[in-house]
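INFO batch 0412 | record 1 of 1 | parsing
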Amino acid sequence: MNKKIDQQSADNIRALAVAMVEKAKSGHPGGPMGGADFMHILYSEFFNYDPSDMSWAFRDRFFMDAGHLSTLMYAQYYLLGNYKKEDIANFRQWGSITPGHPEVDVARGIENTSGPLGQGHTMGVGAAIAAKFLQARFGDWMNHKIYGFISDGGIQEEISQGAGRIAGHLGLNNFILFFDSNDIQLSTSTDEVTSEDTAMKYKAWGWNVVAIDAHNHDEIRKALTDANNETEKPTLIIGKTIMGKGCVAADGSMYEGHCELHGKPIGGTGADYNKTLENLGASSENPFDIYSEVSESYQKVIAHKKTKAEAKKVDISIWKEANPEKAKKLDFFLSGNLPNLDFSTIEHKAGLATRAASSGVLGYLAEHVENMIVSSADLSNSDKTDGFLKKTHALKKGDFTGSFLQAGVAELTMACIANGIALHGGVIPVVATFFVFSDYMKPAIRLSAIQELGVKYVWTHDAFRVGEDGPTHQPIEQEAQIRLLEKLKNHSGNPSFLALRPADSAETSVAWKMALDNKNTPTGLILSRQGIKDIEPIASSRYNEALEAEKGGYLVKKVDNPDVVLIANGSEVSTLVAAAELLESENNLKVNIASIISEGLFKNQSKTYKESVIPNNKPLFGLTAGLPVNLEGLVGDKGKVFGLDHFGYSAPASVLDDKFGFTAEKVRNQVLEYLKKV
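INFO prediction complete | emitting tokens
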């Protein structure tokens, strides 16, 4: 402990944050200046990782919630050697590895993409759950910590309610959250928007809460020491900080704690850029330099981290030698690979709802995939994830031997936790709710896609056939929204999402196979409430034919030289089969039927294959229980899509089928009307 070096280090972080924002002409300097003391003490004295092996599975992890404080992270990691000077100087520029909000980059210490407030610390809760899950299976030596950093805005975001409740309920003592409480947000002081007692709120959720002066290094040390020793509860460290700590006006007077220091370069505020750098011990001519004594100190810190990690790795090696079978299993979990799975062996009763077929698959997975956590937003008996739950038990405080997370009514929190589980590694997350409530999950789904995480979303009650529950519970526009992500590429150049709406039980088994094989992007399974008549196999094996769905689409009924090709996904495929029977028997038409489980995946197939399924020289008719846009990209300008252009109504599903035109007879008539015009 060297008070001079500690202060210089924190001031160096402040100066770097100020300089990055000033050069970029945009950013948020005030918050990083307030949080610099905590970051320095955390990383120099408490945070365990291996600087020579940044992806080491048993490292501590830091989840930033306040992504606008990215310069705080970049400055800290620059001192630790994770960034070069030119990286820091190119903050927020094209091609830079220091973007405006942090983007997951484990090699440089960035564990999560952040920016939308509230999600970062909730992902941290997910990582803490994953760590507890693994510890329960492999031993208490697996004792790494998950740290989070949250601002006033993150505390105010509604998702903090779900994250705080679940972390406290589960007793996640491996989760330590620092609240940078500076009483300032972007446009106001916090007292203009809230009068809550944050400490009492978290205590009520079952947290250990401590309030400190977060510019006092001894208080930071004690709080972190106590948090690391906590055995029953997650810890919230409420650190009182000063926005723009160290800022100086042109006349040399201190200019701290002002709202305008939050979100723009300090040169455009009442503070003076050059005077502030001078006050912090930096040079305005070389603002991106690391102070010489700070550099020497951090070289010692890095060496110490490596030595400590090496000692931990020796302990782990000893454990592995003493527990070869467990060690093999642990390595397999961490590899991201799957065991050999034979989905063809899963038997389904005839005419199941696809949610029920999914339940059967989940029961199979519960017995064959040991590192999967399934979660439901208080709907397990309705979204049928109870097929998994019946083979295991729920996670609870002090017992993480189960594999099911009862998230309660908290769809966004649950999805965000799943992202954190995926980011941690070693565990496969599955989350489920009604399809209409995917609306609550959209911000986390988007971060799943941006971060390229293999989260599995299960959405049941997929269409207006929810029936009596009425328009609030009947998805109409949701499929169109989700399928937009299939059209949007991630930074690896691939479709950012895989949306699967299977036509029957066999396709549901295949959809689950596709979801588990899809490790680098999120997958959504869109499943029916009502029973669906199974597609008859063209040959002998319906499952083998359904494997063609792995191309995004295929023909479930085919003849030579068809008069019309009918196109759908999900339960509408069986409606088309019934309509085709009428068209053939009563109207002497030859009909092909295409089941397109994923438009995005189908469109990535070869031109030859696509035209073998949906020829461009034949009349094309699409049927969807959602918006017509769901299929318009498949039928083209000359084709016709029958869908809905209105919200649903409360009535039995069979009544709605008739009223909305989704019976075999009415669909047959729609096809005939279309054929008259082509």
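INFO post-check: The chain has a mean pLDDT of 98.
INFO record closed
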